[in-house]
Amino acid sequence: MYLLPTWCYCLSNLKIPVSSCPRQGETSGLAGALTTAEREELVRLRRKVHEQEATIEVLGKATAFFAQQKTK
């Protein structure tokens, strides 16, 4: 059986005004609030970006070092 999302039900239900219906993808009453899983993923991704930036910095310095050694 196919279940319609909550927002579709709200639009078809005449007892509930459209302005009070949740937006598609919202699961809580707080607009813009992150779920625990989303928060954990955000922390993980920020850590990964930080690690990648550090790696890029080290590789850039190593490249400059070896380029300088090659010209000597």
Question: In words, what does this structure look like?
Answer:
With 72 residues, the protein is an all-alpha fold. The chain has a domain at 34-72. It contains 2 helices and no strands. The radius of gyration is 25 Å and the shape is rod-shaped. The mean pLDDT is 76.
Offer a few descriptive terms.
rod-shaped; mainly alpha; 60% helix
Give a topology summary:
Elements lengths: L5 H7 L23 H36 L1
Q: How many angstroms separate the termini?
A: 74 Å
Give the DSSP E fraction (strand runs of 2 or more residues): under 5%
Topology, number of strands: 0
Structural class: mainly alpha
| Cα-atom radius of gyration | 25 Å
Which stretches are low in confidence, meaning pLDDT under 50 for 5 or more residues running? none
Largest beta-sheet details: none
Helix content estimate:
55-70%
**Overall 3D shape:** rod-shaped
Provide the succession of SSEs. HH
Number of helices: 2
* Mean model confidence by pLDDT: 76
Short description:
The chain is mostly helical and 72 residues long. 60% of the residues lie in helices and 0% in strands. The mean pLDDT is 76.
